[in-house]
Amino acid sequence: MKSRKYLPVLLFFFVVLLAGCATSTKAEVKKAVSEELDLLKNLDPDTTQKYISYEDLFSDASQSSSISPEIEEVFSLFFKNFNYKIMEVNVDKDSKEADASVRLTTIDAKSLAHDFASAHLREEILKNASTGTDSNASAQEHYLLLGKLLKKGDYEKVESNCTIHLVCQDDSWVILKDATLENDLVGGLLTYLSDPGILSPSETVSVYMKTLKDMDAEQMNTFLNLDSVLNSEDETEKSIATALVEQVHKCFNYKVTNETDLGYTAQVTLSITSFDSDAILSAYQKQLDQYLATAEAVIEGSEGRLAKSQEFLLDAINSNEGTATSEVTLNLTNDGVDWNVELGSEIGKALFGNLSTDTASTVNEDSGYTEDEEYCEDEDYGEEYSEDEDEEDYDEEYYDEGDYYGEEY
Q1: Greatest Cα pair distance in the chain
Q2: 322 neighbors 219 (Cβ within 8 angstroms)
Q3: Which stretches of 321-389 are DSSP H helices?
Q4: For residue 248, which of 317, 341, 343, 329 has the smallest C-alpha distance?
Q5: Which residue, among 41, 356, 343, has the nearest Cα to 205 in the 3D structure?
Q6: Is the C-alpha dihedral spanning 234, 236, 237, 239 positive or negative?
Q7: Secondary structure (3-state) at 351
């Protein structure tokens, strides 16, 4: 009978003992999670590198075998505002496994990835414009670009939930690291950076347009294949090319008017504003016509007229204040990495109209002069003789100058 009397008491102590063991185990799990995440929070370089995978973060980059101090700084910048709160811990004693539900505070990784994609595309466009070739940036260059954005950008903090899995090994709880956990701890940065649609077709085209505006004449010539517009070895024509590009810099603007995104292909329609090439040609032609009506145009010959026409064209370009707007539709394809823009001749036409460095070189063809007329009308060569002139008068005048040519036979 006494044993029955004490049975409830024994059961109570047994339950308390089990609860104490469970509480103790959960505390150990929580401690293991806190110790690891505190290292991230305190910017421990070895721990931060575990959760921004140097090799996997930029899959399109050419890899390097070493991690520079600049790259280590990027890790620290990324986790500067990192924080966490352990919400719940569940333990399976039989399998010696546990899960911890954690609320994370990280920087806005989606905005960072979006800015990185824009900045990286801009660098690739300029590199292509300078060298005429495509080449992958190294992982080092990718990280340095990411570091610039982290230093310059004031990114907001965002909250997200994640589950951390642990296993008991040699009486210690160890976090099981995998790609999912790495991605969660960096706010989904791995996912966002590998998203081929992180920039929309319109955003991709906008990066191209903004970068084009900053190019010099040589870069525009290479990138848009504008040999017929900007390419020349002649110094005067180079000046004309530079003046045309400066007009683009001054007048260029664009607006996306339509986007059609079909997943793997897309079309973006732009309204592009540039300098008014027709107004420039009109002002140039007016000056040229006035000049060609003078005796000076005859005297200076073809080379002189060409030089003068180039001078008029350069003056018309530099004096222009007018703009013109045209519509261009660009085709894009997505290769699974990002959107590629097919730049056709329409962009060059929209930017430069009918102007080129050799516009003035057609002056001799357009002027209506022939070589015979040049000599016949030149005052230095005397009067022009027509075919209707009396042949006898011509012979008499010729022989009257016998003192110079000798006696007539």
Answers
A1: 172
A2: no
A3: 345-352, 363-367, 371-376
A4: 317
A5: 343
A6: positive
A7: helix
Instruction: Determine the Cα–Cα distance for residues 109 and 115; give it in Å rounded to an integer.
Output: 10
- For 137, the enclosing helix (H) or strand (E) is none
Q: How confident is the model at residue 140 (pLDDT cuts 50, 70, 90)?
A: confident
DSSP-derived pairing of the beta strands 265-275 and 253-261: antiparallel
| DSSP element (H, E) containing 82 | none
Q: What are the backbone dihedrals phi and psi of residue 216, each rounded to the nearest 5 degrees, phi first?
A: -85, 180
Is there a contact between 117 and 131 (Cβ–Cβ < 8 Å)? no
Q: Which amino acid is at 82?
A: F
d(CA 73, CA 248): 39
Round to whole Å and give the CA distance between 92 and 88. Answer: 14
Query: Phi and psi (nearest 5°) for 260?
Result: -125, 110
Question: Would you say 275 and 250 are in contact if contact means Cβ atoms under 8 Å apart?
Answer: yes
SS3 207: helix
Rounded Cα–Cα distance for residues 279 and 276 (Å): 5
What six digits make up the tokens of 380?
């230095």
Q: Which position has the token pair 């329609």?
A: 269
For 209-244, b/e burial (b = at least 16 CB within 10 A) is bebbbebebbbbbbbbebeebbbbeeebbbbbbbbb
Distance CA 269, CA 202 (A): 9
Side-chain-facing half-sphere of 194: CA atoms under 13 Å: 9
Q: What would you report as the CA-atom Rg of the chain, rounded to the nearest whole angstrom?
A: 39
DSSP state of 138: B
Q: Residues 44-56: pLDDT tens digits?
A: 877 877 776 666 6
Distance CA 117, CA 113 (A): 6
Segment 282-309, tens digit of pLDDT: 999 999 999 999 999 999 999 999 999 9
pTM (2 d.p.): 0.77
Q: Quick check: 279 and 320 in contact, CB under 8 A?
A: yes
